[in-house]
Amino acid sequence: MGATVIVGTQWGDEGKGRFTDLLARDMTTVVRFQGGHNAGHTIVVEGESFALQLVPSGVLYPHITPVIGNGVVVDLGVLLREMEMLQSRGVDTSKLKLSGNAHMIFPYHQELDALHERHLGKNKLGTTKRGIGPSYADKSMRTGLRVQDLLDEKIFRAKLEVVLNSLNPTLSKVYNRMPVDADALAETFLNEYRPKIEPMVTDCITLVHERLEAGDEVLLEGAQATFLDLDHGTYPYVTSSNPTAGGACVGSGVGPRYIDRVVGVAKAYITRVGAGPFPTELFDDVGEHIVDVGHEYGTNTGRRRRPGWFDCVMMRYARRVNSLSELAITKLDVLDQLDTVKVCVGYEHDGQRIDDFPYHQSTLHQVTPIYEEMPGWKTDLTGVRTRPELPSEARDYLAFIEEQCEMQVTLVGVGPGRKQVLDFSAE
After folding, report:
1. For FRET with 320, which of 17, 229, 264, 265 sits at 20 to 30 Å CA-CA?
2. What is the dihedral of CA 228, 231, 233, 234, to 10 degrees?
């Protein structure tokens, strides 16, 4: 027994939450290992939709212990409201555990996020302005406040004073903003949040390792995706953490020897939110069709996602970076009505073919995708539950992706529901 990692392989919004929910049936523990409330995921259970931001997907199973790991940055207000929402809809959140080493997001992080984005002007990154980047920046600068600091008022106030001694002059003199009131902030966090948060604060490293050493299955759940990774994504249009499989080890405290399965999740096409390069982006009626049928708008922000064809060059890179053991495809049904579908198999740059993802950003911005065009299936897939039921054109599409990406497709989503999944690895 060991740990399974589930990661996004594109630019996020691949549908990781629904496959996390599916795989969690056989787990005892689900650990969210990075990101913050900028990454929403939606799970549909018996027609009821749950939009989660911070709480791990496994919370919908009564046998699961959901864990928010040390690699996550947490807006405590958002977390408490999300828990209240779940409880009001009959979901038990009493097992939820929160790492004492997770860093907290404060209102000043969100203000800095918005100010920084505004001052970038036309070069803005397209962040969600949720304070994620500034919180991670404080973590790297070793001036961040962790959840465990709430449990010692003296330490909390001392650390907050250090931060504000540096921050307040910047807010007032550079941005012409009001300084942060330390007492008001401490009142909210110590007197409002702490009593509700303290019962769930845990040594999550010990908890998870005790489960692993007992032979239990543990699922490590990431937010965002490979090409939003701080080191391996399309920098600077990335998130502020590492949503790749390697980040799962750091953000959960689980060493790599425990990991025996890495599941990559991808849409049957690609979407992206915000700025940044996108070789297969569609600007035509097909792109509008994908956005409309796929409801491609952000779970948290409502922003329209940019659509494009499936990119095997990206997927081969994601396979290497994450050591993917298999691939799960979502939203195949979104392509049901198309006469033809395309798959990017390589790039052209300066008259030369490129089969590997370019390391240099200037090259990536200039490439032209090389496509293979295939016939569409023109069939409603939402009721399909086995591989033989798929039209031959849909099977060929998935088999072509397997061949190009040198990886087996195991699970395929054909609708938003919990049961709208088929095992493509089974004949």
Report:
1. 17
2. 110
